[in-house]
Amino acid sequence: xxxxxxxxxxxxxxxxxxxxxxxxxxxxxxxxxxxxxxxxRSVLTGGLALAxxxxxxxxxxxxxxxxxxxxxxxGGGPLLGFTPVPVAGGGxxxxxxxxxxxFQVLIPWGDPIVPGGPEFKWPPTSADQEQQIGIxxxxxxxxxxxxxDKDCDVEEDEDRDRFFPLSQGRPGRGNRLGMLAxxxxxxxxxxxxxxxxxxxxxxxxxxxxxxxxxxxxxKKKNGAWQTVxxxxxxxxxxNTPMAFSGPAAxxxxxxxxxxxxPLGTANNCANGVTxxxxxxxxxxxxxxxFGAANAWVPTPAQQRxxxxxxxxxxxxxxxxxxxxxxxxxxxxxENRFGWVVEIDPMDxxxxxxxxxxxxxMKHEGATTVEGRGGRAVVYMGDDEAFDYIYKFVxxxxxxxxxxxxxxxxxxxxxxxxxxxxxxTGEWLELTIDNPALAAQFADQGEVLTFVRMAGDVLGxxxxxxxxxxxxxxxxxxxxxxxxxxxxxxxxxxxxxxPNPDGHIIKITDGDKHVGLTFEWDIFLLAKDTRGTExxxxxxxxxxxxxxxxxxxxxDGGQPNGLNNQMVVADTRTGExxxxxxGVAGDEVTGIAMTxxxxxxxxxxxxxxxxxxxxxxFPVNNPVPDGETVPRDATIVITRKDGGIxxx
Length: 647
Description:
Layout: H1 30-40, H2 60-64, E1 96-97, E2 101-106, H3 126-129, E3 137-144, E4 177-184, H4 189-192, H5 201-210, E5 212-221, E6 224-228, E7 234-236, E8 243-245, E9 268-273, E10 279-283, H6 300-304, E11 340-343, E12 353-355, E13 367-370, E14 375-381, E15 385-387, E16 389-397, H7 398-403, E17 412-419, E18 424-429, H8 435-438, H9 444-449, H10 451-458, E19 463-464, E20 466-471, E21 476-481, E22 503-509, E23 517-525, E24 539-544, E25 549-554, E26 565-570, E27 576-581, E28 587-593, E29 600-605, E30 633-639
Parallel strand pairs: 8-12
Antiparallel strand pairs: 1-27, 2-30, 3-4, 4-5, 5-6, 5-7, 9-10, 10-11, 11-12, 13-14, 14-16, 15-19, 16-17, 17-18, 18-23, 20-21, 21-22, 22-23, 24-25, 25-26, 26-27, 28-29, 29-30
């Protein structure tokens, strides 16, 4: 992969935008509940001990798309047959992978979204960036095209392109041709355009067009994946027209005095996929793109969502009035962000839709599963220290609702979780019909727009940065809680208060995902891996396969000199092996697979924190040259013998 050598950017300042605290409700923190819980029931230690037999799998919407595949030889034998990447021997310039595996770099930041488009030059122009892969590769979904794998090399015919589940269960289809929907979470100014702050609207547009989502068509040819032309390949960014739907659509809180139409999506973190074949992208740290050019006093709602005069130092508000909190013409513009956005990857003519029934928060992801009666259930984490876990349940059977022209994501109930000391919990309905909420909110639209505050009123349990969520085939829900550094102290060894290493919680939801009560337990304390060869901390991305493997990705300072990594766990035995290690300063994130589970897509985000003195990835220089700008990219992982990923 060729890289651009241009002007040497300054060393960026690393900023973890997930470490703030906006919840001042004073509710009993999860740490206290966890302490009591640990005293009552055993915590799984020594890695991932078996909590339930064969409870993991690619289920729900993922399985309906063929993304989970069929069990591939798990049987009763060992699931992890690969040689683990050792702790020592890295260096951070280039990724490391198990010797039984290989990887390819695909769609780095700046590559054209279709062949023949503008090639990467640093710094990019806003016009070029609008036609290129953006920066900050994160959550993604591979949508397999219903084409026989043997026919993938014929002339492209998009009229024949169809998606699973139309071909679910038919082997040999969709493994070499598909649409990849990928979130482009963020890129700091010094990395994107070489300046600490924008000096013009053009600088702002470069940054804005680097954020958002990319939809690209990819296929495997001659053993390698590549992008191919498609009328549906496109960029969706901060200036793309959006639609609102659901209870808060048209609400005064989503209107501005200027009357400008809704535009854009930003800080797209994790993701989800629906049963009907659409992509769910989730807006997380949207507050950081707003600032105040003049005198401004934040409202309680703005404080609760973490808005500040300088934001995250993007400086958009200095040249784009939409992001200036002190501009009265754009009052409420900030309320248009923080939603789950639905995108049709196969139809570029469809406007992305922000589904307000799912609530406004710092959405990490949106994991969909089919509940009792065929109802669509969506689990979501609000990724900030001391914030909450949510679920949404559609009013009816999702197929019946769609047949009537109703979106299952528009009509339903939203709940927030409260955890009890005895291992039980309740889902608290976030409805204006509740007198406690009716006393403080005008209507359901306001409840959903300020859903964090509604959760405060109902006494939801503050958590340690709820991130990715996965659901096993027996219905158990697993949520990664990355850490809570706001409570950490330098000599803090325990996982509770402070919790520098993070943990994973297991929830068993009642009445096949649609009940109002649940049971919970601690599944994994990351601190228990310290001192072992499979050490990892700060669990973030997570995905399970039907054989009982759990893929865990990390986002945080790793012990023993390791970079962020992806480990694989055998949930039956507790064995953990390191499959992949990224480069210095990066985050390993995003997981997608082909239906046969022989190709996995993961992402390297902000390699070297954008510093070319640390790494020139995806250029494999033996020593960083200080000039070749590192670029976020997707990694395509395969076994050399063509086997199932993780085996």
